[in-house]
Design a protein that fits this description.
Length: about 280
């Protein structure tokens, strides 16, 4: 069984780092996870111990996995032979779910059900977008600014509201981390914050726009588009050679917006819960 698991993030990076960096767009989330764990400690995402893995049938790594409990285990693209072996490799772990490419997930889920008897439910289908060409900013009401420490309480409330809406748990410490490198853009109208867009630290030349949120009372006025455009430019200004973002495929509004802003589809993923 060529899947190897480890709890040592440095050992994982030493073995699989080149593989992750070889496709930074597709591995955007994994690169961010690893960077955060190395910078903020292994429990940056929760009290559970993370696990890392790589599939190395010969000398080179061809697939990887990362789990930061309580979040689903995330897999990179995998050769066909790696899928059933992945089921066996992690069968003894208490998985809450998996995040996999759409063309791979069904085989893994079927194997997991057969191996463990777990019931499975599709929680979300997502699409990864890559910036192609960012159009000139549209004329609209309001202006942007980089969030500061004085905005922390507002951002904590908006994070809680955002993650409640999508049915997920907000990672601890993320607001303070992003404020620290200027990774939060607020859109304001008459001095009142009405929308926010954030972006990840640059890892392997790429950054990911995240947590685009507008309170319900301010939606439908283009504020999210303004915040996203500015956040994208800010990421580029911080050195990103590629900027990406993820969307929920069940939300046609956001998928349409990001394509109008110059983002193009790259790949689809499925998040499945086990219980």
């Amino acid at each position: 069984m060529p899947w190897e698991l480890t709890a040592d993030v440095e050992a994982f990076v030493a073995t699989a780092g080149d593989f992750l960096r070889s496709r930074p767009v597709q591995h955007t989330v994994m690169l961010t996870l690893v960077g955060t764990l190395r910078r903020r400690g292994l429990h940056a995402y929760g009290p559970g111990d993370p696990v890392f893995g790589f599939w190395r049938p010969d000398q080179s790594v061809e697939a990887v996995l990362i789990q930061t409990p309580p979040y689903p285990m995330m897999f990179s693209a995998m050769p066909a032979a790696a899928v059933p072996e992945a089921v066996e490799a992690v069968a003894d772990r208490p998985l809450t779910g998996v995040n996999m490419l759409a063309d791979t997930v069904d085989e893994f889920v079927a194997g997991w059900h057969e191996r463990t008897g777990a019931t499975t439910t599709v929680k979300m289908r997502t699409r990864l977008y890559l910036l192609d060409t960012l159009p000139p900013p549209a004329r609209q009401i309001g202006q942007s600014r980089v969030a500061a420490a004085a905005d922390r309480d507002l951002l904590l409330r908006w994070h809680e509201a955002f993650y409640d809406e999508i049915g997920e748990r907000s990672p601890g410490g993320i607001v303070d981390d992003r404020l620290g490198y200027g990774g939060v853009v607020l859109w304001e109208v008459d001095g009142v914050p009405v929308s926010v867009a954030e972006f990840s630290r640059v890892e392997a030349g790429m950054s990911r726009v995240q947590m685009v949120y507008t309170p319900k009372e301010f939606r439908g006025r283009g504020y999210a588009g303004g915040a996203t455009t500015v956040a994208t430019r800010a990421a580029i200004d911080q050195g990103a050679e590629a900027v990406v973002l993820n969307t929920d495929l069940a939300n046609p509004t956001s998928n349409g917006l990001y394509q109008r802003l110059g983002y193009r589809p790259v790949e689809d993923r499925t998040v499945v819960e086990f219980w």
